[in-house]
Every structure is written in structure tokens, then in C-alpha cells.
Amino acid sequence: MTWQMVPTHTSGEAAGAEVAVLPVGSHEQHGAHLPLATDTVIACTIAEAVAGAHPVLRLPPVTISCSHEHAAWPGTVSISATTLAAIVTDVAASLKASGIEKLVLVNGHGGNYVLSNIVQQSKKMALFPTMECWDEVRAEARLETGAYSDMHAGELETSILLHAHPELVRPGYENADELAEDRRHMLTTGLEAYTKSGVVGRPSLATAAKGRDVLDRLVVAFGDCLASLA
After folding, report:
1. What's the predicted TM-score (pTM) here?
2. What per-residue confidence (pLDDT) applies to 2?
């Protein structure tokens, strides 16, 4: 699969679009085997896949978001939830001025809780994939680890990158499993209270085939997302 973080279509090629897709990633630690930009790469990969199958306008990504729980690890950068909300709101307003009133936020980072509230306040936005969508896709792609256990740099994220961008996966993921089933105070303490490596999940179970199946099923599920906006 060809990957471009920044779309290169012209204004004329964008004309007539009714729905735009905004990838929202992050810049945060993903253990020793995945890059800081993992969530951005995954959000862009999903956006590119759905744009190849559905009539949407793919936008360049938001690459830094709300990663405060990862602050203990070098390289992590965050913006406030207020700033992220302002960015998304401004993007939506700008799109509306050019005639595109509907926006799908393709979120690659689970800590971007504020995106749910932005969508909740707007009848012309959608969040993709939802938690329910992720659960269905995980089951259909036969991932072995549940979403709660496989929170970060685990089976899901490593599988997607092994399929779409294997050159980004560093050696050692086969032995990087770390679980933290009780994370009830994570928002207060940060993730460092629960994992030494920064991993929460089982990347040892990751395969390129699982990543391919996840993306294929997300493309199908995106049809329901568009239907909800209609």
C-alpha cells in the first residue's frame, strides 16, 4: 500500500466533495518497537484506505494531540484538549466556507477524549472508528487480545504497521509483551505507573495478515459511518 501523510490532490480534484476526512494522530512513545508517530501513521493509513473506496476528501493530519499520560517518555509532545478542540472546530468552519459541511474525524489515539464531545455537539461530524467499531473489527480480524488489554503498541497497532509500513517496525516486538489490567488511576498518575516499557498489550501476536484484515474491515465499516452523516 502506498502511504502519503499529506494528500496531493489539486483544488479541481477536490471539487464536489461533500464529506472530508481528518486524520488525528499523536506524537507519543510506543515502546521500543514502534515510532512516536504511530498513531498519526495509523490514522493516515485508515484515511487513505477509506478514501480509496468512498467519495470523501482526505485532509492532512493533526500530528500532535492529547498524550499527557505518556509524558514520562522522551519524545512525547502534547497539546491541550482545548487546543485540539479549537483546531478541529476551525477546520470544520473552514471546510464549510468552501462548501463541505460534513467532517469525519479518523482518530488514531485513544486519549483524545475531547473529540467525542466535539462530535456530540455537532450534527455534521462523525468519529471513526468508534469503540464499538474497533471491537467488531478486532473480532472479525481474529485478534487474540481484547481492546482493554491491548491498549498501546500491542497486537492491533503492530499488526497494522507490519502490513502497511513494515519498515517502521523495529526488531524486538516479538518479546515486548507487557500487560497492565488494572489502570484505574492512569489519568492521574500517567501510564508510567503501570508499564516500564510503555507497552500495554501483546505485540508478539501481531502479524501483517491481521493488519490487512483490520484495514479491509474498517473500509467496509466506514460505509455505516457515512450513512450516519446522511
Report:
1. 0.96
2. 47
